[in-house]
């Protein structure tokens, strides 16, 4: 090994592999995450008139799956 070359130590190699993997994962996630669409604001008669607790289908599914 000549003096001009630097020796890549095990610690530096593992750091480089970890940083490269994290950067690759972040790039994949950034491409695949859908952007949230803004919901239209309902005013006046378009508003739903709901008050209090309503046991909807997704609430019943949650309770069903949360049973111990």
Terminal Cα span: 63 Å
The general outline is elongated
SSE succession: HH
Strand content: under 5%
How much helix is in the residues? 40-55%
Enumerate how many helices there are, as a single number.
Answer: 2
Radius of gyration: 27 Å
Descriptive report:
- It is a single chain.
- With 68 residues, this protein is mainly alpha-helical.
- It has a domain at 8-33.
- The protein is built from two helices and no strands.
- It has helices at residues 10-32, 57-65.
- The chain starts with 9 loop residues before the first helix and ends with a helix.
- The model has no long low-confidence stretch (mean pLDDT 76).
SSE layout and pairings?
Elements: H1 10-32, H2 57-65
Keywords for this entry:
single chain; 68 residues; mainly alpha; 0% strand
Brief description of this entry?
With 68 residues, the chain is mainly α. It has helices at residues 10-32, 57-65. Helices cover 47% and strands 0% of the residues.
């Amino acid at each position: 090994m000549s003096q001009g070359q630097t020796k890549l130590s095990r610690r530096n190699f593992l750091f480089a592999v970890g940083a490269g993997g994290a950067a690759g994962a972040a790039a994949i996630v950034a491409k695949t995450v859908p952007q949230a669409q803004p919901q239209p604001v309902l005013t006046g008669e378009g508003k739903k008139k709901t008050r209090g607790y309503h046991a909807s289908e997704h609430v019943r599914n949650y309770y069903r799956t949360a049973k111990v």
